[in-house]
Amino acid sequence: MSDLIRRDEAGLPADFLQKLSSGIAESRATTIIAGGGKPLLRLLKGGHWVFGQSNEEVQPGSRWVVNIRSLAHGYICWVEGQLRGEVLTSMTTQKPPRPADIDGVPFQELRTFDLKCIDGDDAGTEVLHKVNSISGIRAVDGLLAAIFAQLAANPDYPCPVVRFGADWYPHKQYGRIDTPIYEVVGWSDMNGNLADQTQIALSPDAPAEPAAPARKRKAPLEAVANSVVAPVEPAPTTQMHVGQRRRPAAAR
């Protein structure tokens, strides 16, 4: 052992405990623990938006507010359909270095954020959205660009209110590739007030503002009950963007 390493009576380097304490504090402050008890929001094959283990279908036209405090970036690694590694930090801090490959499989870009439904049957529902597909990362990048512009134009209302949509394109090898759409339909402050002064339900006691007639809850989509965040698919030939319309049925 090198004589240059000074040790205390416990046999540890003299500054080890101080460095460890600082490292723990930094790690806890900058690391997002995935999941957080919230159900996962996912776009499934066929353009279906669902959330939770039972795959409850998102009500068409419902509005969801993005919690900008939860925006996180990092990397994820899938090996033969199994999640093998994930690292995330808040977007208020620098994105962490890309980890080393696992069994020769590289880590892919990952973006996550929380949302809360503000109207319709799902009002009050909180979800976690995790995106690592190429088209999904592209769509999230468009959403982040909208947030960036809003922070410069009207920082008092920094949280986008979105409606979900989907598009798709054919791929010779993988068949139909579904792509998410985040249509920004408004902006909220951090206390649940829309920019047009309409109160929305960001707290359990606040009433939900119905944007559409209530409907009977559809049965979960049993055929996709085991779906998780999809591994990365090949890049599309055309770029998706926030607010793009769904393709007509005849095109499918």
Keywords:
about 30% strand; nine-stranded mixed beta sheet; alpha+beta; disordered C terminus; single chain; about 250 residues; globular; disordered N terminus
Tell me what the structure shows.
- The protein has a domain at 40-71 and 113-251.
- The protein has 2 helices and 9 strands; from the N terminus they run αβββββββαββ.
- The longest helix has 20 residues, at 134-153.
- 14% of the residues lie in helices and 31% in strands.
- It has 252 residues and is α+β, with helices and mostly antiparallel strands.
Topology readout:
Layout: H1 16-30, E1 40-44, E2 48-51, E3 56-57, E4 64-79, E5 82-90, E6 108-117, E7 126-131, H2 134-153, E8 159-171, E9 175-188
Report on the biggest sheet. 9 strands, mixed
Instruction: Give a count of the beta strands, DSSP E runs of length 2 or more.
Output: 9
Q: Tell me, briefly, the overall form.
A: globular
Compute the average pLDDT. Answer: 77
Distance between the termini: 68 Å
Task: State the helix count.
Answer: 2
Beta-strand residue fraction: 25-35%
Helix content: 10-25%
| CA-based gyration radius | 21 Å
Spell the H/E element sequence. HEEEEEEEHEE
Low-pLDDT regions: 1-9, 201-252
* Estimated structural class: alpha+beta
Quick structural gist:
The protein has two helices and nine strands, in the order H-E-E-E-E-E-E-E-H-E-E. The protein has 252 residues and is α+β, with helices and mostly antiparallel strands.
